[in-house]
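Data deposition worksheet. Section B asks for the primary sequence of the deposited chain exactly as it was used as input, without tags or linkers unless they were present during the calculation. Section C holds the resulting structure in token form. Section D is free text for depositor observations; keep each observation to a single sentence. Incomplete worksheets are returned to the depositor.
Section A, Depositor: J.P.
Section B:
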Amino acid sequence: MTSAGAPGEITRAAYDEAFPRVTDAATLYLWRQPAFRLVQWATAVRLPGIAAIVAEALLAALVFALFWRGHLWAGLAVSVLVMGMSVVSLMLSRLTHVAAATNRLRVAVDIVYPLAWWWAWEHALAAQGRPLEPIYATMLLWVVIGGTIAIRVVEGLALHRFNGMQLHAWRPLDTRFRLVSTGRNINLAILAISLLVGRPDSGFVAVAWWTLISLIFHAVRLAQLTEEQARRVKISSWLDQ
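Section C:
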């Protein structure tokens, strides 16, 4: 998946072939082109995949610290860099030789740090003069964290049951919903809008509701897929047709 020119150089065709066909709107439309240049540079300087993961983790830790201390705009600005590094580390894992353990670490980092971000955002609401009632805030936080983990479980079950097919790739509806489904990038967009209008507390509430709605949608789609499988209907992705 490299060019016929300079050894190790990533071609645009190889990059486009390896880029996720089903992902969120920010990754698909905002980061696709910039990440290509970063991946080209990373392969040119022979940057190891673990270095990109470490850089992503360090930036994510900085976002957590900024959110926790109430510097929400600064945290959002740094989170944009985390988005880019996340795409770069993903593409390096797909386009270059990366050890299985390194790839598992990348996935773990991508799963864990956003959960810490939402906790830090909830904690910062008091500093913003918009504290939520403690029990209510705890309930919302558990909806966001528990819902996010539950969605990951649903996605994993789909991969296991349906021969590696992503749940989001079953029908066009699933692929379109994945563009806006709850996740790091979409949640950050919701929080940014809420901060822009001066209501970071409402943004956190909105993230909790959107997490719950997304979980219900994915759980229903998994149940429908399971029913189709029980009826011996051939399960395949619309992207392969």
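Section D:
The first helix runs from residue 12 to 18.
The chain has one domain: 12-240.
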